[in-house]
What we know:
The protein is built from twelve helices and three strands, in the order ααααααααααβββαα. It is mainly alpha-helical. α1 packs antiparallel against α2 and α2 runs antiparallel to α3 (52-62). It is 64% helix and 10% strand. A hairpin with a 5-residue loop joins β2 (193-201) and β3. It folds into two domains: 7-175; 183-236, no CATH class. It has a three-stranded antiparallel beta sheet with strand order 1-2-3.
Amino acid sequence: MKLFKSSIDVISKLDQYYSNSDLSYIYKINREKLVKIINTFELIQTTNQITIDDWDIIEKGLHENWFEIYFTHVGEYLALLEPEHPEISKRLLALMASKKYIIRRNIVDICMLFINKTFSRAILKIGVQDKSYRVFENAFYIISTNYINDTELMSLVNNQLNLIPESEQKNDYLRSLELVKKGYLINAIEGNRIEFEIVMNRKHNNEYLCFSMPKEEFEKIVDIEKYVEDVRIKQRR
């Protein structure tokens, strides 16, 4: 297992990083929480056990809204520890029944950090069926980005989309799926220009390229898929 950096080193670097940052105020009011979390994980690694008090601190971290806390520290540390402490994945799965939507949302958000992909899929299966649209949305975008060819997960996504009443939000979800499946999408026709969006690299979280072109130029395209692939090749050079 990768060894954690000492809490003194981590906090020292965070102090330097946030000293002149736009987030310096947020960091100041959350600094002690981070210190407690980092010290807790350092202790877990030293003792090789997770106590009830440790879990209390971890769960409080999972209830935080700031990415630096719940993802960068709690999430990444849990992911590093899980191979030697499988109780972590079991505990997180149990927490997906929490009444606090933010904990459920954050667990969905961190699940892809874990080497244990059986665990990640289990979290996503629960998350995409969650009653909270914030939890569902997190699971939806992770699945559509990373599991577009996973029949079971995509079936759950489609089932949930069928339950959503017609709305602009539902159209956005459907449009996002179409974009990922096709690899490109014509977003809009504005006057004499066509707005395009292309999936550039499926291996790196579906990096996107947005651009526009004259309508008359678009109408000259004979093979749209070949044109899209040519754009990808030119952008990679």
